[in-house]
Amino acid sequence: MEGRSLWISLHGGGSAPASVNDQQWQNQIQLYQPKEGYYVAPRAPTDSWNMWFQPHITPLFDRLIENFVVKNRVNPNKVFVMGYSAGGDGVYQIGPRMADRWAAASMMAGHPNDAQPDNLRNIGFGLFMGGNDSSYNRNGMAEKWKGLLSKLKKGDPGGYDHRVRIYPDLGHWMQLKDAESLPWMAKFTRNPWPDKVIWRQDSVTQTRFYWLGVSKSDHVNGRRIEATVKGQTISLTAKQTSRVKVRLSDELVDLDRSLVVKLNGKQKFSGKVDRLKSQMSVSLSERVDHTSAPSATITVGKDSNVRVNGKLIGENFLDAGNYRAVLFGDDSYKELASVEFQITTPKPKLRGIRNADGTLTLTFEGELEYAPTVNGPWRKLNSKSPKTFSPTSRKRFFRAAN
């Protein structure tokens, strides 16, 4: 996919006067120089210790990315984030939280606070720290995360690509040695449809992550979903989440063939699903990211209800008409039983009143249709009951239809 890269670089500072954070911001603007793409160093909206991982940061960066994708032809699969000091605090948090937006992320000289690395499976994650940077135990936490990332990589060799550099003789300022992260990050390209997703909610919860989604009642801090795809089988493990939406694309499975969805080891769905433009439209209204937009969805839960493209299975009722149902035996040509039946629907009501001023007011059920002659052609009026027509109206014949 063509397009330029986008590098988002977060300044340090924190709970300090605005002038201090302004100085850190100006420094960040000149700090790194990627070989390709747009380099953007935003000014934090607040002057607070957690300036880069408050709830408003997620939609802010979503909008920033969208603007560059739409107006500057940025490739949404080549978006990178990095941050120094308080900016590094932010990357520790939004790296995992927004991992489905990044190709790679790098943390420089920050502190993780309560962040966890679970969600980093499908991106590159860099960690750069001075070995003598002992304030707030930054160096100790970097060593801890080095162990966590190594353990995750060992248990899941297909994911958790990372690079950790702890420079033994350096303090909080790493003399730009951490700039080695940029060419390393540039090698990564986001995959919006990975075959395995680990999604752990944190204190700023989300309703979607890669090809998974949950309702607002289900996005709770600490809840974890593991999802894998093998061939045409999608397996979900979600012990605490009541319902999970699977966002489908031909990039993930072959939608021309039947697929199976399992939740906590139990089969919840087996069959084919239709591709619908409406599902892509819903996704794009949430996030302008066409490479991650699904063409179908399946929602499963701990109960027996399954929704395909938002519609509860079993809601496809028969239209009015004559029907014959047949039960066949082992020999498909032999009828064991049959029944014929008819489905009828009551005719919708239509009533007209001629008013004193010559106008006509119609009250009706269903859809109101009109035609120039009694034989048609009939067209929908797209009006609600009641509807009043002037004496000069050319819509001379009316009918109500279901």
Walk me through this protein's architecture.
With 402 residues, the chain is of the alpha+beta class. The protein folds into 3 domains: 4-186, Rossmann fold; 196-312, no CATH class; 350-401, no CATH class. The protein has helices at residues 18-31, 57-72, 86-97, 138-155, 181-186, 277-286; strands at 4-10, 38-40, 74-84, 104-108, 124-130, 162-167, 196-200, 208-209, 212-213, 224-230, 233-237, 243-248, 259-263, 266-271, 296-301, 307-308, 311-312, 321-328, 335-343, 350-354, 360-364, 367-371, 379-380, 387-389, 397-401. The strands form 6 sheets. A 6-stranded parallel sheet has the order 2-1-3-4-5-6. 34% of the residues are buried. The mean pLDDT is 92.
> Radius of gyration over alpha carbons?
29 Å
Give me the side-by-side strand order of the main sheet: 2-1-3-4-5-6
Largest sheet: 6 strands, parallel
The outline comes out as elongated
CATH topology of the largest domain: Rossmann fold
User: What is the CATH top level name of the largest domain?
Assistant: Alpha Beta
SS field, number of helical segments: 6
- Total strands: the figure is 25
Give the name of the CATH architecture of the largest domain: 3-Layer(aba) Sandwich
The chain-level mean pLDDT equals 92
Query: How large is the share of residues in beta strands?
Result: 25-35%
CATH superfamily of the largest domain: Alpha/Beta hydrolase fold, catalytic domain
Secondary structure class reads alpha+beta
* Total tally of structural domains: 3
Low-confidence stretches: none
What is the percent of helical residues?
10-25%
What's the end-to-end separation, in Å? 47 Å
Assembly level: single chain
